[in-house]
Amino acid sequence: MKKVELYDTTLRDGAQTEGISYSVEDKVKIALKLDELGVHFIEAGWPANSKDKEVFKILKKKSLKNAQLAAFGATCRADKKPNSDLSIKGILETETKVVTIFGKTWDLHVKDALRISLDENLKIIDNTITFLASKGKFVVYDAEHFFDGYKANPEYALKTILAAQNAGASRIVLCDTNGGTVTSKLIKIINEVSSKINAGARHTVPLLGIHTHNDIGLAVANSILAVENGVMHVQGTFNGYGERCGNADLTTVIGILKTKLGIDCIPDANLKELTKTAHFVSEVSNMRQQPNQPFVGVSAFVHKGGVHIDAMLKNPKTYEHVDPALVGNHRRILASELAGKMPIIIKAKEFNIDLDKKSPKTAKILKLLQDLELQGYQFEAADASFELLIKRELKQYKKFFDLESFRVVIEKKTDGRINSEAIIKIKVKGIQEHTAADGDGPVNAIDNALRKALKSFYPALAKMHLSDFKVRVLDAKEGTAAKVRVLIQSQDENDSWGTVGVSENIIEATWRALLDSVEYKLLKDKGRQK
Hints:
This protein has helices spanning 24-37, 50-60, 86-93, 107-114, 118-134, 146-152, 154-167, 183-194, 219-228, 250-259, 274-285, 306-314, 342-350, 360-375, 383-393, 442-454, 506-529; strands spanning 5-8, 41-45, 68-74, 98-104, 138-144, 171-176, 207-212, 233-236, 302-303, 332-333, 402-412, 418-428, 431-439, 465-473, 484-491, 496-503. By secondary structure, the protein is α/β, with parallel strands linked by helices. Helix 15 (383-393) crosses helix 17 (506-529). The radius of gyration is 28 Å and the shape is elongated.
């Protein structure tokens, strides 16, 4: 079986994503998780900055099972020798076996960015890598802007990577730094370079690598086609994080290599951890996971159309390219007017309720679902609300508490501060609770007040929290009288679930979604206790 090396740069290239700001602890957590998955190299950062220096110090004390850490930096400055260049010194201080150095390939950059001669740039590449190799380092050379450079001046671009090769680089990585190279041209260049790179050189390069960006949406395709054309070292980031449009998404790359091409890149037993790892990285990065992300997204194996669902139940291969369990994901069937009775039957089966297409109960629930969708409800992202709807309709559900009233007060003070307060009256098992709570906004205030009122009866509610809140105006032509749909995503230490509420009043819509969220948590916990 062909093997491909995976080189992860989430902690360096991925950290350049707009909205991501990793702490030292964040970087350590992600590095350890990627090591568990089985990637071969983890670029832990650029030790020229103090935060990354600390990351290397901590990770040095950890016993990594699969990955080697790589310290990243540039070739030495034009006015410095490698042994006196501060950036090179910082790399050596990390004491990593692997070092990754990027250098200029595009003559435009040499002339306009570095403002040195083309020959001087070749000397810098040679001197830097020769010095690091003499220190016993495994040097990965990233040929920055290689494809743009090759298109502009192929002879010079080739000279730069040959200089790196002859200086003792262990890997030469061709970078599509601007992410604008179409696949056909990228493959043509790779094939031309592959035939020349080891010809007559002092040192041969065991593996050629690829590093692509996604500015025209081809980062993964370019990486995969590069592998099919002999490249055996792939660089990328988890979830495709990176500057501008991001880097090649290693989750997709891994999924394709393992399930479609039969290429070894992580241990077979670890493939089922792919989805969990992708979601872990998104959580630590404080970035919303893309629902339609291939292989690992929550919608990657979702089915909504009635024809699709019916066929899926007969044979999953009809509408799934791979078994979701292989990559640690799972199949979901959405409830909607398009799906007919099947999602109702499937959902009911999950909680041991026997329904079939001919059952009057199924027809009744479908009619209710269609009526609610006509009012503006959607259950695609609100599985928890749909489950409660079925159980309520089938009299399989007993309420955990009754609302008597609630009130929300929003006060703007003279100093400009806005305070939200919610007052709520509920009854639990015949006992009335009357509480109030402040919040950052009305939604937060209602949530705080409700859970405060319930905490003595249901202490487990302290372990859940709202993770997302969305409002959609359903008919903008109605102006402020329009209905709104509120979607709430909640989670606890084990699960995540979605609920929905619809009303002309945004507070009422929020309450309905919040009520379902809390009741679902209580129902879920009750089921676990049985």
